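HOLO CASE FILE
Compound: copper (II) ion
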Amino acid sequence: MAQNPGTPYRRRFLGAVAVLIAAGLLAGCGILGNHTPQAGSTNQPTKPGVLKVLNQTPRPLTVSRHGQDVAIHMYAEETKVAIAPGVFFPAWTFDGTVPGPVINLRQGDHVTLTLTNMDPRMPHAIDLHAALVPPNDAFTPILPGQSKTIHFTADIPGVFLYHCEFSPMPLHIAQGMYGAVVVTPKGEAPPLYTLVQSEFYRPDNLQSVLDSSPRYVVFNGVANQYAVNPLHVPVGNPFTIAVVNAGPNDFSAFHVVGSILRDVQASGDPKNNLYNVQTDMIAPGDAALIELEFDQSGQYSFVSHAMNQFGKGAHGIFDATHSSSGQ
Ligand SMILES: [Cu+2]
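Model generated. Tokens follow.
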């Protein structure tokens, strides 16, 4: 893990937090009061925590490409997000969403990535598993209002996690600071869908992340969202999906009901093939590129076959029809 100032910063920002809370309450906007719903409850009052909820407006990343030179600008911020029907979570985010945006690259891209920390209350940092760089230089903390630019070449194809690197890292990840980098080999098409599995614990509660079971386990930030709104996929033609496990703690057991994973590339590298896998284990911090093919029209559930995860929201549906299209 990269060097970071940790607790002293936390203490320093508590003073600023008190000022912000007072200003927010006086202004009657921006910072939410005790009526804010907690994860896991739609009507319980928010238990007083170290930090009150700050709901910054999502700021999307920008990407500009010139040949294989890619410039990306991302933003760290705090934004309240919905993680289940009627359940809101005071997230720490990349670009205002959980997970953060998918970063799509081609093998060999030269990437210049700038992260601006718009969060007024604490430092953040970014660790990209796709970047072969010295972490003590590239993944270091970015103070509120500051920016940092890193450079890397996407030499190795695959599907990778990125996440906040600031301490306490288990909390920054559990709060929502993660996303996927997809590095597509030359001549290949990017995956049809990217699914990021992750867990939600008590908001802003490190001990909950370290000691307890998650309240929700989700694909792309919302429990059971693709069971309600299935993902359309083709019939009779193979297609690929990327599955990333952001954790922060639990292994994923990715399974598609009524199907077999035809070709699984561990970490998304075309050299790492396993064929005809019934359930693929994906460690926290890892990913897979998975080829599927449905010979018959129908609705095929995808789940984490770890049944506690399935029961907490890790469930979606592939809708295989002849008129389907990608996302
Ligand atoms: Cu962070």
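CASE NOTES: The CA atoms of residues 250 and 284 lie 6 Å apart. Residues 92, 124, 164, 166, 172, 177 surround copper (II) ion (CB under 6 Å).
CLOSED: yes
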